[in-house]
Design goal:
CATH topology: Thiol Ester Dehydrase, Chain A
Number of helices: 2
Order of helices and strands: EHEEHEEEE
Strand content: 35-45%
Helix content: 10-25%
CATH class: Alpha Beta
Largest sheet: 7 strands, antiparallel
CATH architecture: Roll
Distance between the termini: 36 Å
Structural class: alpha+beta
Number of strands: 7
Shape: globular
């Protein structure tokens, strides 16, 4: 069963908002398996004037954040499809093997893929990547966890 999500559904699940929401659409999602999401990169992104004015490049940390956000959506849909309650927060817990293979800039469309590697006691590990025009732009293993807050 493949699920698609528009921005309205994404906003119901992720707490991120502009300028930090980095997922525009979910193209496909199979709970407990994988997700394919999309981010349209435009010249209007708030980081481009400073990174870099003469040759705009999307910061690598934001590419990793986009992978983490896609992975979070996969987690939510895998845990019964609901969003977190007010006492829970989804934290980025770690990253391994991050590699950047090509710059991402204005006009690019990032295809963000994430696959669940394992889930144990509220800790999730994913293999994630970003492609642009069929070329690998970035890859990493990301770990996330859900914690209760007071």
């Amino acid at each position: 069963m493949s699920i698609q999500m528009d921005i309205h559904e994404i906003l119901q699940l992720l707490p991120h908002r502009y300028p930090f929401l980095l997922i525009d659409r979910v193209l496909s999602l199979e709970p407990d398996k994988s997700i394919v999401a999309l981010k349209n990169v435009t010249i209007n992104e708030p980081f481009f004037p400073g990174h870099y004015p003469h040759h705009p490049v999307m910061p690598g940390v934001l590419m990793i954040e986009a992978m983490a956000q896609a992975s979070a959506l996969l987690s939510f849909k895998s845990m019964g499809g609901g969003k977190l309650d007010e006492k829970s927060v989804y934290y980025f817990a770690g990253i391994d093997g991050a590699r950047f293979k090509r710059p991402v800039g204005p006009g690019d469309q990032m295809i963000i893929k994430s696959a669940l590697i394992r889930s144990m006691r509220g800790l999730f590990k994913f293999g994630a990547s970003i492609e642009v025009d069929g070329q690998l732009a970035a890859e990493a293993e990301v770990m996330c966890t859900i914690k209760s807050v007071s």
